[in-house]
Amino acid sequence: MNKRLLLYPLIIGFFGCLTWFIIKQGSTLSVKSGPVVTTTSSTTATVSAHETVWTSLVHNIQHPLALLLLQIILILIVARVFGWLAGRIGQPAVVGEIVAGICLGPSLLGWLSHDTSAFLFPADSFKNLQFLSQIGLAFFMFVVGMELDTHKIKNKAHDAVMISHASIVVPFFLGVWLAYHIYPQFSPANVSFLSFALFMGIAMSITAFPVLARIVQERKLSGTPLGLLAITCAAADDVTAWCILAVVITIVKAGTLWSAALTLGMALVFVGAMLYVIKPWIAKQFKQFEAKGREKSIVALAFLILLFSAWAAEVIGIHALFGAFLAGVIMPAEVSVQKLLTNKLEDVSVLLLLPIFFAFTGLRTQIGLLGQGHLWTVFGMIMLVAVSGKLGGSAAAAKLMGQSWTDSLAIGALMNTRGLMELVVLNIGYDLGILTPEIFAMMVLMALATTFMTGPILDLVKRIETNRLQTSGV
């Protein structure tokens, strides 16, 4: 037997005996009198008379980190299942992930077992999920921005602005018109008609930019003229809509228009600085790093620009996701750089963090508020106004700009996707006391319905176009 194998038990045994001897001698030492310090001693390492193993495990599960990890695991499993089910019926995965959040929230789980829902998703744990979801969305929008071909967009800028603004002004007008009819019955007592009408108008005008971008990505339309035009329209739409929202919030809070004008001015300066100062500087730095083979430096600088841009946009008041998207837009167009950054971010954001964003929003939605039968008539009016204003207005504008009818309808269907940006706006209105719980619930259901109908409409448009080409012999 190798003598060196005997060294291991000898060394362990020798120092183990010395350690035991010191501990035994130390147990006879006395302690000077002084303040009592509460610590976790050896006696509390075992289960006390007042604590069982089960309660100890429950206490450990409720630790913020353990609870957050459990929530993420549960959200990812349920989101993947519902995303798969959504794909089976021809819907984008985002629809399934929103439904997953609703099922995990008060609309289903809370209704079936309030104690279980309160245990898994206590109110004080939502901030942690919200931070993770916002980071995931920022990463995703950064990737979308990198995949955007700005040279092709320049050729479509005029069309995009025209379509996007038409998709705002038409539903905005119809929202104000709807507010005129439902204000006496559904507006809170202390809210003026101006505040209620303006908020209904902006709520009808929102397009879910990240949801639309994900639908375009899943349907492999990112590099097509239709996909580029739709994403450009949605970007212009939401930037404009968020600026209008800032004005509306200013009016609601009984302030002046000066703060809204200042926000818009700062936003324009920020965009100009990113495009004409930061963009050429980044391109120069990336070339130097690439020539020296310093890939980690490229990734580190890109992450820094992403975080800074998102932070600056959030501070200005135009939302962090637009800053993240703009950071992606100004990244160099070299394939090697984009592939490097995309590989670092896409899987983490799409497969891990982004489902948390969709599920988190669903967790805050209560579909059960639509329990009274007479509200369905009002909901029907809301759906009619929402679809005709957004889909109809966008499609008509696209047709006027020279698009074919099939492409116009496809653009209208994509712009009609409201999704989570609508839910963000609705939560703002609800927190400000502008929307009653009934109107809030109906508007949430409208946001989900318009997102759900995007896929079937796109499939219908594609089928019509295919039949037309077959008929014409092309």
Give me some keywords for this one:
474 residues; single chain; mainly alpha; 78% helix
Q: Would you write up a description of this structure?
A:
The protein has 474 residues and is mainly α. The protein has 20 helices and no strands. The protein has helices at residues 4-26, 53-61, 64-88, 93-104, 109-112, 114-120, 126-147, 150-186, 193-205, 209-218, 225-252, 258-291, 295-316, 320-329, 335-363, 375-400, 405-415, 419-431, 437-452, 454-472. Helix 11 runs antiparallel to helix 12, helix 12 (258-291) runs antiparallel to helix 13 (295-316) and helix 18 (419-431) packs antiparallel against helix 19. The longest helix has 37 residues, at 150-186. Residues 39-47 have low confidence and may be disordered.
